[in-house]
Amino acid sequence: MPRRNTFEMRTALVTGGAGFIGANFLNRSVPERPDVRFVNVDCLTYAANPASLEAVAGASNYLHECVDIADDDAVEDVFDRYTPDLIVHFAAESHVDRSIVRPRAFVRTNVEGTLNLLEACRRHWGSRRGLFHHVSTDEVYGALGQSGRFSETSRYDPSSPYSASKAASDHLVRAWGRTFGLRFRLTNCSNNYGPYQFPEKLVPLMILNALERKPMPVYGLGENVRDWLYVGDHCDAIWAVVERGRDGETYNVGGGAELSNLEVVHRICASVARRTGADETELRSLIRFVEDRPGHDFRYAVDSTKIRQECGWQPATSFDLALDATVQWYLEHADWVDGVRTGEYRRWIELKYGAAVAQGPE
Ligand code: NAD
Ligand code: TYD
Question: Ligand 2, closest atom to CA 206?
Fold first, then answer.
């Protein structure tokens, strides 16, 4: 499919590039696009791990700026110094369970941080037109029943502080497009899994607990359904929209792999058994049904027709193969896992950036 880019892309500012999806995006994009300078703007919260970026840290077209996007002066300064042509905005507080316990940080980063980036674009771009790509979630649409799928025109109906803050950020991006002429594109993606995911989310938590023979906590009866997408397919989808999408448009991105949480955990047990020779029945016996998450959305499912038709994107991987690859990745990256589990990754950040950064904004 032909490219529809009408801006010259020299500097891409990637926010949240030390997190799960951002790191996958940079690990792939930095070597593949040597003509683009990638500036990773990430203040290294608990969810960030610089070890996820070891492969690109020394690349001549990669830089890291330890900047909090909720700090408007610091954002302004980054724009002054790099004059980016493309923003790919991943940075967010992203964990629903944390948002229920401490919602304020979600509004600060996801809403105020997005506002600061939009304002910086408005001030810096003027008539020179860069592109703002906003990375969002299908959770803004709320919960589905047994049938139906979210389309780009589905009504926003967020349930958690996380999804409400992402919904607010989506609205801000569209308003800056309509009111100030900002060039933007938006993707709302389903649940991702793959390498470098922090083990507070379902897939890595269950993989590691299965490997370590620890209890596997399934909320409620495990009947809630998510649409799972391999992180590499999500990164491809973002480039497909940046290069072949239309300005001012939203694209839903889904994996077409709808599974109940219990089914996901069963498949993880099967994969860990295949990869390690463990007994699958023994692994399943580690499953514990625990108290449900408040406001737990029953089902998400995404209609990706628009991105398929307009941008020529579709997921390249099947759930079981990509899950096997993910299990294998966690088996082969014990150092990364140990760093996260022991907190060693925070000590590394403290040495390089100081105690305040290592401690995080809250
Ligand atoms: P993550 O939590 O793994 O990483 C977030 C990154 O943002 C971290 O590196 C963190 O340090 C950084 N960050 C947080 N607050 C910041 C701030 N104030 N200033 C600068 N950097 C800050 O998140 P993820 O899972 O990689 O998600 C990335 C984006 O994709 C988010 O916007 C999320 O809403 C969206 N998304 C995620 C999924 C998923 O399944 N993980 C699905 C759809 C959409
Ligand atoms: P999660 O990975 O937190 O993503 P999200 O809440 O953004 O969908 O959770 C995925 C699903 O798995 C969700 O329905 C909640 C459920 N879940 C559990 O059952 N147990 C767990 O320990 C976790 C973290 C999640």
Answer: 22
